[in-house]
Write a sequence for this structure.
């Protein structure tokens, strides 16, 4: 005797086929014949042989319904497909059922792929009976996430980027796509003077960046929020202002430098039939402007100050730190005093802009002389006493800041042999020639030639950063 399925009007053909699906689900395919193959296909009779989609395998049909046999019914086995065909003199109805419960179950394991910049993408498909509510924690795009793990790896957080709901009378299929949060892209561009502008685009959440943030914008990728962050770095990938200040670039450049003129005291001797005449002069070598090689250091800092340490900056080049800022605040001057011909006293001082002094007294020979009656005081200080004609002494100070060279003497008794810068000195009278002041000889010394500080940029929080340019050079010999 034929076995019926859900109604006396459907008779089983052989044994139903059972397929085991993933996650505890099954698919059941049942082939049946009808008792009236000529008329059961009529529209008026379709309710006799076609159960409702989504109805349980165990449910009796409304016409001539039958309960399942003991142990026959599968839990939550619901109708998903019905079709019929004629085979010989039989009218066959095929019913397909699947396990469809009241909560979502994955149809299969996740489909995983690596997308942009190696970020993981996860496709997850779940199914439940028709009308099942979508979980509230699984449909907020860009907010809801899964911690996805493959085998024994550390879980990767992936955010919901899109979802799709496929509804039928039998089931609700819920498809979600997740993308791993992280770095989508990094682009770099070389700006001027060693600055690298780096734009990092993050997906969903902003990650860690290096350097001051000068721009931030948002966008969209695959349904998720992107954050593009632009920072400034040096060529080594460090912040251009790490530790408050950072030398980001160095290069050599020819710069203008003016060698100071040189002021010195020199002696000439002229010998003729009338004897020997000594001429003591202020000698001048004029200033010279030249191009010299220098080291340019570009620094970015958070401070708006030029500090004393900038003037003794160490550029890392030969010579170590600079000795100071080349910025002379005084120039050389001359002084001479005495009594000229016709007993005319004189005392003259002149400043020489752009000049330094040389403390080398060339062509001058000291003469101790015998004791005499001549004395000389300068600015209230006794220079010498009890000196005879032709006495001559040298006086020098080579300390920076106190540079000085002078000669002090007594003219010959007849007033014919001593000329001081063009003035004949009256016989047996004291005189003084002095040069002083001005900077040291810069040749061979390392100096800071210039410090320039100006605002460079502001970050997104309104903080101002400054660019400092320091120029240093070991001054070559003239």
């Amino acid at each position: 005797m034929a076995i019926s399925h859900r109604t006396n009007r459907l008779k089983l053909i052989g044994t139903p086929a059972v397929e085991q699906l993933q996650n505890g689900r099954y698919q059941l395919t049942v082939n049946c014949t009808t008792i009236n193959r000529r008329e059961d296909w009529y529209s008026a009779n379709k309710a006799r042989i076609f159960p409702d989609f989504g109805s349980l395998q165990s449910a009796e049909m409304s016409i001539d319904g039958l309960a399942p046999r003991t142990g026959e019914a599968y839990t939550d086995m619901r109708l998903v497909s019905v079709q019929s065909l004629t085979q010989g003199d039989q009218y066959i109805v095929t019913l397909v059922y699947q396990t469809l419960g009241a909560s979502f179950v994955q149809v299969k394991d996740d489909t995983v792929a690596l997308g942009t910049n190696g970020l993981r993408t996860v496709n997850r498909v779940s199914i439940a009976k028709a009308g099942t509510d979508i979980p509230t924690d699984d449909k907020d795009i860009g907010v809801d996430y899964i911690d996805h793990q493959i085998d024994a790896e550390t879980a990767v957080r992936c955010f919901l980027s899109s979802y799709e709901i496929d509804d039928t009378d039998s089931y609700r299929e819920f498809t979600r796509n997740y993308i791993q949060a992280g770095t989508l892209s990094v682009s770099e561009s070389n700006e001027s003077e060693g600055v690298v502008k780096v734009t990092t685009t993050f997906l969903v959440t902003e990650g860690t960046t290096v350097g001051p943030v000068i721009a931030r914008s948002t966008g969209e990728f695959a349904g998720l929020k992107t954050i593009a962050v632009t920072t400034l770095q040096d060529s080594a990938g460090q912040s251009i202002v790490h530790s408050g200040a950072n030398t980001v670039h160095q290069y050599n450049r020819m710069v203008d430098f003016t060698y100071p003129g040189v002021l010195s005291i020199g002696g000439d001797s002229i010998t003729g039939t009338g004897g020997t005449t000594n001429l003591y002069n202020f000698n001048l070598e004029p200033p010279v402007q030249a191009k010299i090689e220098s080291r340019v250091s570009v620094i970015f800092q958070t401070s708006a100050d030029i500090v004393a340490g900038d003037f003794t900056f160490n550029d890392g080049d030969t010579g170590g730190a600079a000795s100071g800022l080349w910025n002379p605040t005084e120039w050389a001057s001359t002084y001479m005093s005495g009594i000229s011909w016709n007993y005319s006293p004189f005392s003259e001082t002149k400043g020489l802009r752009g000049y330094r002094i040389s403390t080398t007294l060339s062509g001058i020979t000291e003469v101790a002389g015998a004791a005499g009656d001549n004395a000389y005081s300068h600015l209230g200080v006794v220079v010498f006493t009890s000196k005879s004609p032709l006495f001559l002494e040298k006086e020098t100070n080579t300390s920076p800041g106190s540079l000085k060279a002078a000669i002090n003497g007594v003219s010959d008794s007849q007033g014919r042999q001593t000329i001081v810068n063009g003035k004949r000195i009256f016989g047996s009278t004291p005189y003084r020639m002095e040069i002083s002041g001005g900077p040291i000889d810069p040749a061979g010394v390392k100096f800071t030639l210039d410090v320039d500080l100006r605002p460079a940029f502001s970050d997104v929080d309104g903080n101002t950063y400054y660019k400092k340019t320091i120029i240093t050079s070991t001054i070559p010999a003239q």
